[in-house]
Amino acid sequence: MLPALSILFLVGVIPLFTVVNHSLHDIFTLPEKYWVGGEWYQEIISSSRFWHSLGRSTFFSLIVLSIQIPLGIFIALALPRRGVLVSVCLVITALPLLLPWNIIPGIWLSLINPETGIVGRLMQSAGIILDWKFNAVHTWIVIVMLDVWHWTSLVVILCYSSLSTIALPYYQAAAIDAASRLQVFRYIQFPRMRSVLLMVLLLRFMDSFMIYTEAFRINAGGPHFATHFLAIDLAEEINAFNYGPAAARSVVYFLMVLCVAWAFKTALFASEKQKVR
Amino acid sequence: MIKPATTYRAILVTLFLACVLLPFVQVLTLSLQATREHPGVLIGDFSWVNYQNIWLRPELRASIINSILYVLLNIALSIPVALPAAYAFSRYRFMGDQHLFLMFIAFRITPPIVLSLPLFQLFAQLNLINSVAGIALAHCLFNIPITIWILQGFIDAVPREVDESAFIDGYSLPRFFLKILIPMIKPGIGVAAFFCFMFSWIEVVFARILTVTSGKPISMAINALFGFTTDMGLIMAMTIVSLLPGLVLIFFVRHHLSRGFQIGKM
What we know:
The complex is a heterodimer. Helices cover about 75% and strands about 0% of the residues of chain A.
């Protein structure tokens, strides 16, 4: 336990305290600091831009989760259980997970490029014009598609792995009782997936909530801030060397993270207790 | 017994796999085309020129090696460190275990960008900027929690009696780990290594902020290729190359991935 804690202390706890410290100062250059107390926090909380970004990020997470998780479960249920095909399917499914995040937007932009991309050419011949540069709705569609493509695989793999722990007799018993497909899902498969689903929900929620690389690459938060998410705000502050406000923002985000983590832990322990009963 | 549902399921799965593969088809075709003029090849021609260029450009070769190095280092760091912790979570109830658990989740889901600035300052003082070790250490932030989770699931599956009889036979704790526990949870270690690999390989924010002048990973090398006269073919070829190590690894753990592990059981 000790070694794990000491590394996490170095890369986690120390930077966290530094951030909190920075967030209370006005910093021109690092050695010159002025104590400003809660000023940055007030500024953030009172700025409409922060609330708009928060709204956008929440909305984005909701859309992405409501597509990815049902789709992922659906696919995981449909994947074959035995045979050679299992490996093939899983390997293909895992492919998008192995790409560095900053490459994915590039791939998608070339895919929807009307001159060279496969989808782009198809859409052009069908008369659909995807104006992702200037049309906010289209930018949203592209980013959501991209995230769904990238991360549904994680949902599929984790759900599938928990499904495969269900022994055959359960299904046989269900067949004897003439249980419907829905009942099998409700009483056998879903309970088994619950803890994994919580985990997936947590990972996916946080990652989509703090989406940065992919969204930034597609349209740099544009057009007109329509895809300006929380993490993009923060990155802008850092790039402008506004250490104080950036740090304050980081602390605010970390508090959000902590709330989510706490909610997750509570939910997890509650479901554990139910299982014991 | 063939149900009508089986065909419908097969169609669904095929459709999904096709959607997953579609962008890769695009990448592959572009990577096998000359998208800019090179000596002896015309634009649009089929050629291996992009792959040759990767081999010829030292900074691209170096970036591949850098990436592989820090990912391996990260795995080598995460697993030995996480193993005892996972064992403790699995076997003992102790004071504050719930709080520790909360801390682990919090660190796993903290977006790297939140900690990037202070981490940069800290590592600058420790002389870890531009080094492979720096990135590997930074990635431990989210990989150690994940590894603990996965390994704990596997250790939970090992009956307690195994430990007890080993201790009665006079095994010390380290020797018990080496001789009995590790061989028993080998698949778990494989799966954990795969997830470490995955999350470390694709992470961009730390990898960028911690490499200022040298030690660039593969993702940053691809970034640098975007410019005024972007050679799309080269970028796509690089993308394919960046997939290969992952494919090799996933091939090794493919059975264990599907054999199932229960995460989140604390």
